[in-house]
Amino acid sequence: MLLKNAIILFAISLNFGCKIKNVESHIENRNVILKNDDDAYLKRLDKKINEINAYLENKNGYNKEIAFLLDMKIASGKNRFFVVDLRNKKIIKKGLVAHGYGSSILNSDSLQFSNVPNTMATSIGKYRIGNSYYGKFGKSYKLTGLDHSNSNAFERNIVLHSYKDLPEQEVDGAICFSKGCPMVSFGFFKEIEGMIDRSKRSILLYLYY
């Protein structure tokens, strides 16, 4: 699988080398991805829910019932996009989500993250999900970065959108890459789309590693 990923990334670099060559100098983290049978992700999830509840406590304009948590330590072929009930600390829905190809490291299962334009890398941090619009990938939602680590998200056109090549169910191995956006399948997008559109307040999306 590592050889396959290396070949894919080498092909990408031929076409996009000028865009991703500076990613290496903006690495924020390089930890090993947890295996799917490791329940440590639940401990991380609980910790992040506590962080979100504390963050939203004195803030108006945000949905304090649900949030979207994306755990990038989980392999991309496994469910790592969690819709959570903030009050009861329960997972409501879960699905696959792609990361940016600029976040992949050749010959490694680790990821790197960047807030720099044109790196095509994913940015970690909290995002406010904004208005929807129709673009290249159909209906999409604008994202505003709320942390130093993702403050350029709006400028970089990092949005929440779907893509036809993403599977609906977990798979062995990696799924396709995005250009830095949290990208989900058509089916999963339909599920969270309704939640976003029905919410009278902005939903928080928290992408972490």
CATH architecture: Beta Barrel
Query: Helical amount among residues, as a percent range?
Result: 10-25%
Which term fits the overall shape?
Answer: globular
CATH superfamily: L,D-transpeptidase catalytic domain-like
Alpha-carbon distance between the termini?
A: 22 Å
CATH overall fold name = L,D-transpeptidase catalytic domain-like
Mean pLDDT: 87
Q: Tell me the series of helices and strands, N- to C-terminal.
A: HHEEEEEEEHE
* Classification by helices and strands: alpha+beta
**Biggest sheet architecture:** 8 strands, mixed
The beta-strand count equals: 8
CATH class: Mainly Beta
Q: Give the strand order of the largest sheet, numbering strands 1, 2, ... along the chain.
A: 3-2-1-8-4-5-6-7
Q: Beta-sheet strand percentage?
A: 15-25%
Compute the number of helices: 3
Poorly predicted runs are 1-37
Question: From the alpha-carbon coordinates, what is the Rg to the nearest angstrom?
Answer: 16 Å
Q: Tell me the number of structural domains.
A: 1
